[in-house]
Amino acid sequence: MRMTAVIVMLAAPAFAEELGKASSDEISKGKRLFDGLCAGCHGTEGAGGGVGPPLARPKLARARDDEALMQVIRRGIPGSDMPMARQWDPGEVFQIAAYVKKLGSIPEEKLLGSAAAGRDVYFGKGGCKACHTIQGVGGRLGPELGSIGAQRSASHMRRSIVEPEAEFADRFLWVRLEAGGRTYEGVRLNDDTFSIQIMDAGERIHSFWKRELTAVTEMKSKSPMPSYKGALSAGELEDLVAFLASMRGEP
Ligand code: HEC
Ligand code: HEC
Fold first, then answer.
1. For 174-219, CATH number?
2. How confident is the model over 7-37, as pLDDT tens digits?
3. Would you identify the CATH topology of the domain 115-167+227-245?
């Protein structure tokens, strides 16, 4: 075991120099590993959408150079949801890192719309404010969108708007509860051993002792967000995506 650890450490810098020169065979092996181990959190082709940030970007804050990228893959990011996926062999780390690096070299998607026009769609026709908060304004049923542009790719946002149930915001869960002969539906806010709290579509909060419940149904991938397919023109959709992409948490 000890021997292996030493070899891995010595081998790493040599690999690092070559990351940009990986063969297409190594990159496609990396892709296969990525699809199995990473895409669930980072999205297909690193486009984002799960708990992990999109990786198809030219600069990664936690992986500024080749060596740092391989380190993140080898060790995960302690204290975050980014795991140490498995005991790696150095060849695999190299392949997967080469693939992630290549994702970053694909030019970022061009935004065709106008953020200013998208703001009007968001606050006007789209009625998005009813459920989403941006800069402290809006409803609370859906996730806060004030820094969505830093977390999600344009294609994820586009799909979220047209097919909310396909591109599902993680950590969001819609539940149906029965208590005292009545049925309640809402977003799960809190769930502990003895009680559960939900917020219904009218933003009313309901709290129950678990022992009062006669049925609980977790409606995985059910979203109260309507699909905007057909409700917005292609141009309006692109404007809206450009507006959301500009939401990067700055006031
Ligand atoms: C269980 C979910 C999960 C899995 C699986 C996962 N990651 Fe992550 N990853 C995260 C999260 C969350 C972060 C952000 C951590 C932070 O910055 O606090 C992250 C961060 C990263 C970063 C740094 C991104 C940046 O902006 O600097 C890289 C690179 C990365 N992951 C690559 C991978 C690779 C490659 C795999 C597969 C071997 C993988 N991740 C598997 C959740 C995951
Ligand atoms: C009736 C309430 C409601 C309305 C109206 C609504 N949304 Fe949502 N939205 C939600 C909920 C709830 C979720 C989380 C579940 C999901 O992903 O579908 C969500 C998710 C999203 C996401 C994905 C967020 C993520 O982190 O992946 C985006 C982007 C989004 N909405 C944008 C919009 C835009 C833009 C509009 C207006 C055109 C809009 N929403 C209108 C309730 C709503």
1. 2.30.30
2. 444 444 444 457 888 899 999 999 999 999 9
3. Cytochrome Bc1 Complex; Chain D, domain 2 (1.10.760)
